[in-house]
Amino acid sequence: MNTGLASAIRRDQVGHADIQILPWDVDQVVSIRGSIEYAAEYHSGEGLLADMASALLDKGTEDQSKLDIAARLEDVGASISFSTLSDRLRFTARCLRPDLDLVLELIAEQLNRASFPENEFQLVNQQVRSAIQRQRVDPGDASRRILSGLTLADSHPGREWDLDEIERNLDVITAESLRAFHDRHRTLRDVKITLVGDVADVTASMVLDRLGPVAAPAGSDEETSLDVLRTDASVRHLEIADRPNLSVLFGHEIPVRSVDDDYLALWTAVFILGGNFSSRLMTIIRDEMGLTYGVRSALSAMNRTRGGLWATSITLSQDRLDEGVPATKDVINRFVTEGPTLDELNERKMTLKGSYQVELATTQGLAARMHTNMLRGYGPEMMDDHPLRIDALTRESVTEAARKWLHPDRMHVVSAGSKA
Predict the structure, then answer these.
(1) I need a surface site. Which of 21, 23, 292, 306 has the fewest CB within 10 A?
(2) Among the CATH numbers 3.40.190.10, 1.25.40.10, 1.10.510.10, 3.30.830.10, which is that of 7-215?
């Protein structure tokens, strides 16, 4: 399957800005995905500042209240949202072509002149505190937090921080400190933007003119950080009262980046092991043995510069815990030793290519995939190459990647819930 998209994408690299524009056969509609560097000092807990600051960007600017901005967007049927992902501040927008200038200018205004109102800050602060209270009694969140601390360094954006530490930070964070944090990072750094739809006459210079000046990324251009921890296998449990269904995680760090040669083969191996309802783990642990309603395996927290972790998660009741843990380990061991069957591989390859076609069926999906490729370090050619790379996977290459990077003997086993 060759999508033929790469040749239709116009790519302009202006300084440290990378703009990709794909004209698409839709009348008037434009979808936008973009991000800028938002390099918080994660080792000192600034990830919380990044998340809270991004939540306040659409709550008003120096010139307009949030209601003013909402009304202007509603009048033209447009939308803008902000979020953080890893070490980047993301924005997503959708509008009609005549309103593209307005939407880009509003994005720039919210990025560069957000007002961080005190009342909105208090609401966000309370939302975070409420979320922490829910997380304290959530076995899934607790087990993920423990495994994250065992596998990801303090400097990794994907590391999940201790809830007590987050609460202590909340006690000293103010609206002004969030504004100061954002001001240190708001200069448009390492801009990556995709536009898809009725954009035949749109140029990169027009986009950048609306957004404002672009600065070079802070620090070195060297991208060699992995930020993962190699620690000995361990068994950890956090007792949470009145939670008879326990969350159990098996996993370890993976020093593989999304740009590494065997990333796709490794990702496919883990997907076959536990990525959907027809995976090896679901077939055996759930369907055949009836030990759980849900078990999955996945890679996470990886990008073009950082490694991440591999985790297999399963929910087990108290009375099935002693049976479910060794059974899950056994399936993982056998999969890594034997690799997938040819039928498993062929079925998952069809699934991956089918989901890719579905993803590219809308302007939002196209813009999102193009932006994801940019973050992973790929150019427009990956839009065509991705299905071809899936086709090129062999049972041998997938098995080799699994054996090279997945080590059952090094897995941490982390559980949370009520054992007794």
Answers:
(1) 23
(2) 3.30.830.10
